[in-house]
Amino acid sequence: MLVQRGPEQREDSLRTITLGAGDRQVIQTPINDSLPVSGSSVAQLFRQLGIVNVLYLFCAALTEHKILFLSSSYQRLTDACRGLLAIMFPLQYSFTYVPILPGKLLEVLSTPTPFIIGVNSFFRSETQELLDVIIADLDGGTVTIPECLHISLLPEPLLQQTQTALSM
């Protein structure tokens, strides 16, 4: 059963703040504030890449880096992309998101904007020349971060607490 919010409920979720000089900003709670439906994709992502690698990808996505998933399985590509977006909740990824990129569109990987893209591992050789792209190999369970990129991880002690909680 779907329940639509009435006008009086919407007004309760709006907050107006003033930054000064008569400027007004309106902040609203998310329209859909329920948890994303990810099935087993988040658990599968952790199984394939491990806790440390997934935390690297999480921090890379939050800091607007380019992330490329490689796999011979289209299902794994889709699940990994969906899983990464799910662990970012309640934040929404606002850049290019393509769970399965066709081989004829590989030039998109050279774009200067951040992305989360999945590509069949058949095209691995075409991705080797990308210098600013983090490559997550789902078949091999590895994450390759180019030397020219620096990913800021969660600050301590939060990083250790997160790793401990995820390992339980």
From TrEMBL:
> Which Gene3D superfamilies does its entry note?
3.40.50.11500
Q: Which PROSITE patterns match?
A: DENN
Q: Which domain of life is it from?
A: Eukaryota
This protein's UniProt keywords: Guanine-nucleotide releasing factor
Which residues span the membrane? none
Q: Which InterPro entries match?
A: cDENN_dom, DENN_C, DENN_Domain_GEFs, Tripartite_DENN
**Residue ranges of every copy of the UDENN domain listed in the record:** 1-168
One Pfam family, short name please?
DENN
Supply the PANTHER family for this chain: C-MYC PROMOTER-BINDING PROTEIN, DENN DOMAIN-CONTAINING PROTEIN 4
What name does the UniProt record give this protein?
Answer: ARS-binding factor 1
> Which lineage is the organism of this entry classified under, starting from the top rank?
Eukaryota, Metazoa, Chordata, Craniata, Vertebrata
Q: Which gene encodes it?
A: SBF1_1
